[in-house]
Design brief:
heterodimer, A: 130 residues, 5-stranded parallel sheet, globular, B: 96 residues, alpha/beta, Hypothetical Protein Ychn, Chain: A, 3 helices, 24% helix, 22% strand
Amino acid sequence: MRYALLVQGAPYSSQASHSALRFSEALLARGNRLVCVFFYHDGVYNAARLAAPPQDEPHLVDAWVRLNEKHGTQLQVCIAAALRRGLLDEREASRHGKSGHSVEPPFELTGLGQLIDLGLGVDRLVTFAP
Amino acid sequence: MILHILNRSPSSSLVYRDALAGMGPEDRLLLVEDGVQGALPSQVRHFEVVGDRLFALREDLVAHGLDGHCDASVQVVDVDGFVALTEEADKTVSWF
C-alpha cells in the first residue's frame, strides 16, 4: 500500500515525531511504500537544518533524511507554517532578505494543496499530532 | 471500517468523548502514547461501548511501564500490528 504521514508535533516537545518514525519503519518492513511525510504546524521544526541534538540522542532530522535517501520518501513542509517559524530554504531566505537559510533539500517547502493531493493520491494518510 | 487513534489519557483530556462520539459500530479504537493509560483496568470503563474493538500499542505501554497491566478486554498490538490495523481500515482518524 501507498502511505503518507502527516506530522504536526515538534521534535523533542511531543512524541509525535518519534511515533511517526517508528510507524514509518514498521510500514516499510511490511512491504508498503511511504510516498511522503508532510510536516505541518509545529511539525515543521523537524526540517530544521541546524538541529544539533546531543550525540547520544536520536537525531530526528537526520532520520527523516535517511528515509528519503533509502526509500525515496518525499519530505514536504508547509511553507506558511515554516516561514512564520523562521524555517526558510535558500530561495525564501533570499526573497525575504535573510542572511542564512534553515531548511535544505531533501526537505521542500510546499503548500497545503500538496497535502490535499497526497490525501487523494495515497491509500492511507496517518496523522501524528502532539 | 475506520481506525480511530487516540493519544490522550482519559484522565487528562476529554477528547476521548469526541472520539467515541465519532465512532461507527464497526470502527476500531487504538490507544497510543499517553492514551495507553486508558487501557488500565481503572480507566478502561470509559471505553466500554467499544467492546472488543479496543486496542493499545505495546511499545507505548512499555514506555509508560504499563506492559502487562492492561485490562483483559484490551487487545495489545505492537507497531507492526498498528500498521496492520491501518491496512485493514479504510482510513484513519487521529484524535489529540
